[in-house]
Amino acid sequence: MIANATLFDFGILTSAMHNAFMRFTCGRIKSDFRYSNTIVYNNFPWPGFAGEPLSDKHHNAIEQAAQGVLDARAHFPESSLADLYDPLTMPPALLKAHHKLDTAVDAAYVPSGGKKAYASDAERVAFLFELYQRITSLLPASTSKKGKRS
């Protein structure tokens, strides 16, 4: 539970970006994920935390896409979340809404050095760990300057 959570929070936490990070960093009990606020949530590099402010454009796009996911779910009031997210029977409208959300979230990371699209969750996690390192490093970001050779 997140007190006073917004559509933006919901959008980030249900995105492919956060889910890739979660699957890599959280523990497990049997085959179930064990989501921890201290290991997963608190260490997740949210867009805009690396010094590049999150634009209103990106914030609003994530909120609108998150609302689109909720609206798509609302078309199936008799279905449980397990039914809605079964990979074999997921409604196409819900899948499309999640793709739109993932696109909006990915775009929010571009100012921090992210890609517009990722080929795999491994690419997402690699980027997030690089971003996390930049955010938490006590050293200034390295800049490669080419000096004149004599």
Describe the 3D structure.
By secondary structure, the protein is mainly α. The protein has one domain. Helix content is 53%, strand content 4%. The protein has 7 helices and 2 strands; from the N terminus they run ααββααααα. It has helices at 7-13, 16-25, 37-41, 56-74, 81-84, 92-109, 121-136, and strands at 27-29, 32-34. Strands 1-2 form a two-stranded antiparallel ribbon. Strand 1 and strand 2 (32-34) form a beta hairpin. Helix 1 (7-13) crosses helix 4 (56-74), helix 2 (16-25) packs across helix 7 (121-136) and helix 4 packs antiparallel against helix 6 (92-109). The longest helix has 19 residues, at 56-74. It starts with 6 loop residues before the first helix and ends in a 14-residue tail after the last helix. 19% of the residues are buried. The model has no long low-confidence stretch (mean pLDDT 89).
Write the H/E string, N to C: HHEEHHHHH
Neighbour order of strands in the largest sheet: 1-2
Ranges where pLDDT stays below 50 over 5 or more residues in a row are: none
Shape descriptor reads: globular
Number of structural units classed as domains: 1
Classification by helices and strands? mainly alpha
How much is the average pLDDT? Answer: 89
**Sheet of most strands:** 2 strands, antiparallel
What's the helix count?
7
Helix share of residues? 40-55%
| Total strand segments | 2
Spatial extent as radius of gyration:
18 Å
Percentage of β-strand residues = under 5%
Distance between the termini: 61 Å
